[in-house]
Amino acid sequence: MRTGVPSGREVLKKAMSGQTRFLVGSSLLASGHQAGEALVPVLIGVVIDQAVAGGSVGDLALWLGALAATFAALSSCYRFAVRASERAAEQSAHDLRTELSRRVLDPRGGAEEGHLPGALVNIATEDARRVGAIASAVPFGVSALAGVAVTAVVLLRMSVPLGLLILLGAPPLLWLIHLVGKPLERRSGLEQQRAADASGIAADLVGGLRILKGIGAESAAIARYHRTSRDSLDASVRSAGARAWHNGAILAMNGVFIAVVALVGGRLAAGGALSVGELVSAVGLAQFLLGPLSIFTMVNARLAQGRASAERVAAVLAAPHAVAAGAERLPEPVRGRVRFRGVSHAALAGADFDIAAGELVGVVTTSPSTATALLECLARDVDPASGSVELDGVALSCLDPAEARRALLVAAHDADLFEGTVLDNVRCESERDSAPAIRAAGVDEVARALPDGLDTALTERGHSLSGGQRQRVALARALAADPPVLVVHDPTTAVDAVTEARIAAGIREIRRSRTTVLVTTSPALLAVTDRVLVLDGTSVRHGHHSELVDDENYRTAVLA
């Protein structure tokens, strides 16, 4: 399933079409600026021929006034053209960032596949900015064409050869500029890819810094980032070299073109075909052409970079969804009965069991891969290859993922905290009373150890807290959400035994009559459950914790 954005070309088209009003307005204003710039050397030539040569003070004042009015008009056009084009660029980039964020946060998932979080951030910032920058370049590309056209018309009136030289020479020059930009486009795309990889790995390493230090893997992590950073640097250097070659080649072509125009104009003046004022105008127009041709260079470079970035944006927007959107609805109210019917996914093979509404169930898996597969199916991160997971008789695959997750919440073991206070992290903007969840998860004890209690501000990902404190805040957040079905994965691995027992009792109390699944090997948590399911991927056994401890395999998994 695709989102309807098949290519970078479509991304560019959509980004530009949303800013049509500003692009048209800024193009007209920028064209007025370029036309005014082209008329300046023409007016200077007229002043020389009509006023200076004739010796008329009145004519001199008149034409100088016309020249001043032209300067005032062209400067005003430039000011408002830049304002409109920059607004179009920023709005276009903003719209792209919004669309990327919407795609990444889509409940159906899939956009994150093959991307580290830092890489997605790079695409949503730098690549979106480069695509948006095309909106500020296009109006000036149009204005440069207007400037060349005005120059050609004026020169045609002065001299047909000069006018034809501009009209016939400009199209091949523009085509050459386009060809020269191709290598830059390719290397710009590689540069952005390498930069995104480096950003992604850096974010990944910073997020796991404490773990890396704990296992003594700093050197390996530094070496990994060094390799990625070196690749990014090499790609940037190659891209910079391509830009330098691109700009130098275009500057040389522009210089040759202008030199030819000036040479032809000089020969015509020497032969008497042009007056002194017309010669001055012709030379001035030849110098003026350097501006539009330089603009073509800038526009071509931005187009090359923007096209490469648009392809990367399109790859995210067009990523297939991990799961489909269903159309069925859950019965109201949600009772919370969960059924696995022959579910096969990854390490799960034909899993078949029921969890009654309001039951507190522990789940012990013989391997981490089985737990991962179970959680993926319950969270509807994937749909099983065969079989179905049902909630109150409705298959999760037939529900909209967002609706399924409102009714069945999976609290991951490695859940991140956010910047803000401890209380903000627990509430998550909910108006529901969070005090019971705070007590049940032991966050009240955490708050007593913090300088501002529950109002203590946390750093990024909550790294100002210890591992156990973060786990308790994350658990309190899940409990405060109070979904009909709550699935919690190893919520107490970083807390001491006394605190773990208190949390186990708190979970049982706060989730009384609400379906709760504890995927864990903690004896303290399993002891408070109504029963325990033991999954080994191909079979399911169940019983109370006190009964199962006599089983050697269960003891190995739980008590070892």
Description:
This protein has 560 residues and is of the alpha/beta class. It is built from 19 helices and twelve strands. It has helices spanning 8-17, 20-52, 57-104, 117-158, 160-207, 209-214, 218-270, 276-288, 290-317, 368-378, 401-407, 422-427, 435-440, 443-448, 467-481, 497-510, 523-527, 545-548, 552-558; strands at 338-345, 348-355, 360-365, 386-391, 394-395, 408-411, 420-421, 457-458, 485-489, 515-519, 531-535, 540-543. The strands form three sheets. Strands 6-9-10-3-11-12 form a six-stranded mixed β-sheet. Helix 2 (20-52) packs antiparallel against helix 8 (276-288), helix 4 runs antiparallel to helix 9 and helix 7 (218-270) packs antiparallel against helix 8 (276-288). It is elongated and about 115 Å long. It starts with 7 loop residues before the first helix and ends with a helix.
Q: What order do the helices and strands come in, and which of them pair?
A:
Elements: H1 8-17, H2 20-52, H3 57-104, H4 117-158, H5 160-207, H6 209-214, H7 218-270, H8 276-288, H9 290-317, E1 338-345, E2 348-355, E3 360-365, H10 368-378, E4 386-391, E5 394-395, H11 401-407, E6 408-411, E7 420-421, H12 422-427, H13 435-440, H14 443-448, E8 457-458, H15 467-481, E9 485-489, H16 497-510, E10 515-519, H17 523-527, E11 531-535, E12 540-543, H18 545-548, H19 552-558
Parallel strand pairs: 3-10, 3-11, 6-9, 9-10
Antiparallel strand pairs: 1-2, 1-4, 4-5, 7-8, 11-12
